[in-house]
């Protein structure tokens, strides 16, 4: 629900969601390019959730965890649909979530495309954490892009990783 609401706002479209028990069909209304963007995000999310479900099934017997956080490389076997994929959580200060997403989602889309990752944007009522899924090197690159974008746009005053980085100024 809240993801669709955010997608509506991000893509400037109206999205009618499927009713439980009926065919899983989304009806998206808006400008052609906005509808295409919304459709791409919905399909990407559906694929992402299918991978999570498949991974959970595969891991049910072993008790492994699929999600890995930054600095934690002991993740379980990835989804059969996405060999080598991991998900990291990138926490940012609440006030810069919009900055990272960018106008109509342009910044986060650019980061996804440049790094070949899938990034779930936090909803307004949730923790300010971006979930980045992809190959290990790609998710690390996406994290660096997010942190670098924040540092560039805020004059280097935002500390996203809790250590004394070169980005901080007093």
From TrEMBL:
Gene3D superfamilies: K Homology domain, type 1. PANTHER family: LD09246P1 (PTHR23285:SF7), RING FINGER AND KH DOMAIN CONTAINING PROTEIN 1 (PTHR23285). InterPro entries: KH-I_MEX3_rpt2, KH_dom, KH_dom_type_1, KH_dom_type_1_sf, MEX3. Residues 1-47, 84-151 form the K Homology domain. One of its GO terms (molecular function) is RNA binding. Residues 161-170 have a biased composition (Acidic residues). Residues 149-170 are annotated as: Disordered. SUPFAM superfamilies: Eukaryotic type KH-domain (KH-domain type I). Keywords: RNA-binding. Pfam families: KH_1. This is K Homology domain-containing protein. SMART domains: KH (SM00322). Signal peptide: none annotated.
């Amino acid at each position: 629900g809240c993801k669709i609401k955010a997608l509506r706002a991000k893509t400037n479209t109206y999205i009618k969601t499927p009713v439980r028990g009926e065919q899983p069909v989304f009806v998206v209304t808006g400008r052609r390019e906005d509808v295409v963007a919304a459709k791409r995000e919905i399909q990407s999310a559906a694929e992402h959730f299918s991978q999570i479900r498949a991974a959970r099934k595969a891991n049910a017997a072993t008790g492994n965890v699929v999600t890995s956080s930054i600095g934690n490389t002991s993740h379980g076997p990835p989804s059969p649909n996405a060999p080598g994929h991991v998900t990291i959580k990138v926490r940012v200060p609440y006030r810069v979530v919009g900055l990272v997403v960018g106008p109509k989602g342009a910044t986060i889309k650019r980061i996804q495309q440049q790094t070949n990752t899938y990034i779930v944007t936090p909803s307004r009522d949730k923790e300010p954490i971006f979930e980045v899924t992809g190959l290990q090197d790609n998710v690390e690159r996406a994290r660096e892009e997010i942190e670098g974008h924040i540092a560039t746009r805020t004059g280097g005053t935002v500390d996203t990783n809790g250590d004394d980085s070169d980005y901080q100024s007093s």
